[in-house]
Amino acid sequence: MGSAICTFTLEDIEKAFNGKFKEQATSSSAWLPVLTNKVPEPRPGQCVNDTETLPDTVLNFIRSHPLMDEAVAHKDNKPVYYKRDLLFLCLVVDPLQYDVFGKRYQYTVYYAGTSTYNLN
Predict the structure, then answer these.
(1) First CA to last CA across the chain, in angstroms?
(2) What pLDDT band is residue 86 in, cutting at 50, 70 and 90?
(3) Do the domain assignments include residue 94?
(4) Which residues are paired to 5 by β-bridges?
(5) CB 91 within 8 A of CB 7
(6) What is the 3-state secondary structure (H, E, C) of 43-112?
(7) Predicted confidence band of residue 114 (pLDDT cuts 50, 70, 90)
(8) Residue range of the domain that includes 32
(9) Is residue 49 domain-resident?
């Protein structure tokens, strides 16, 4: 057991959501990419003015295709923080910017709440 704090870029998230969906023919089949011509219009994940007007084909597709084909990569290809034997329950992120003698510094401060004390 353990917990990790990971960061992602919006560009990488958008890339995954604009990519292919996964589907499974049967419960014992491998997960495979959905062919582009099988994805309904409007494409799931795109913004629409009124979700009540979405056709049933789109809603059924969303229900039966909850996974994207590509994973979203961690920024810098690793978690920001990882701790074994600890469970994070809450996370607050505070981006900070400072100007010091004309040079700009950017930091991200993470506040993680846990369920128990770490006695290590």
Answers:
(1) 15
(2) confident
(3) no
(4) 81
(5) no
(6) CCCCCCCCHHHCCHHHHHHHHHCCCECCCCCCHHHCCCEEEECCCEEEEEEEEEEEEECCEEEEEEEEEE
(7) confident
(8) 2-84
(9) yes
Number of domains in the chain: 1
Q: Residue 4 pLDDT more than 70?
A: yes
For the full predicted model, state whether its pTM sits above 0.70.
no
Residue 56 lies in a domain: yes
Establish if 91 belongs to a structural domain.
no
Higher pLDDT, 31 or 114: 31
Within 10 A of 38 (CB to CB), how many other CB atoms are there? 10
State how far the Cα of 81 lies from the Cα of 30, in Å rounded to an integer: 32
- Please state the length of the chain: 120
